[in-house]
Amino acid sequence: xxxxxxxxxxxxxxxxxxxxxxxxxxxxxxxxxxxxxxxxxxxxxxxxxxxxxxxxxxxxxxxxxxxxxxxxxxxxxxxxxxxxxxxxxxxxxxxxxxxxxxxxxxxxxxxxxxxxxxxxxxxxxxxxxxxxxxxxxxxxxxxxxxxxxx
Length: 150
Hints:
The chain is of the alpha+beta class. It has a single domain (about 5-135), classed as Ribosomal Protein S5, domain 2 (2-Layer Sandwich), CATH 3.30.230.10. It has four helices and six strands, in the order H-E-E-E-H-E-H-E-E-H. Helix 2 (about 55-70) links the parallel strand 3 and strand 4 (about 80-85).
């Protein structure tokens, strides 16, 4: 388990990262990062129910990624919110290779965040439709969809 100040804990923070976060792709996971200015940086781990069907499988993979990441916590620069989204390949990955891929993603984080991002973020969605806080995020609503009250 990561120390409490380093944990990304709120659902709205995970949602903001999925919309505004800059993706960086690795062989076993996708790092989505956003420059938030928080000190220390906040980190979350995601294993999707679409990819990993059982809760046991998702929890196991999140614990493995967390444990592989824990010794690298001191190397993470301050000021970022980030999530590591597990890919299907992480299930069969060797622990040493998983840690090396996390090291690589953390090393390229500052340089990738400085590059201009040409793609606009997609509008936030939920199972119920358009998320109410998209206005706060500054993300335009998709055309033809009415706003829902939150």
